[in-house]
Design brief:
- It is a single chain.
- The protein has one domain: SH3 type barrels, CATH 2.30.30.90.
- The protein is 22% helix and 39% strand.
- It contains three helices and six strands, in the order E-E-H-E-E-E-H-E-H.
- The protein has helices at 22-30, 64-67, 75-79, and strands spanning 2-3, 12-18, 38-44, 51-55, 58-62, 70-74.
- The protein is globular.
- The two termini are 13 Å apart.
Length: 80
């Protein structure tokens, strides 16, 4: 498992768990970051923050600090 914030552009993975303050976790789940959801990194801002993710058919832009609370299994590891 790695943090969502560690994935590079074009990489994808499956959400496994969320950590952090309950308010942040609730907000991330409302945005679609729920265990079992597939997520792909599509773009980063010029200075690296925020990052645009494709999840459940929606494009969601979040800060790296928020992405660090989401644990994922990278697609390469999920396929193995």
């Amino acid at each position: 498992m790695v943090k969502l914030s560690d994935l590079k552009i074009g990489a994808s993975g499956v959400v496994t768990q969320l950590d952090g303050a309950s308010r942040l976790v609730s907000r991330m789940m409302e945005l679609g970051f729920v265990p079992g959801a597939s997520v792909e990194v599509t773009r980063k801002a010029p200075f690296g923050d925020p990052v645009l993710y494709l999840i459940r058919g929606a494009r969601i832009s979040i800060r790296m600090a928020e992405a660090a609370c989401v644990s994922v299994i990278p697609s390469e590891a999920a396929a193995a």
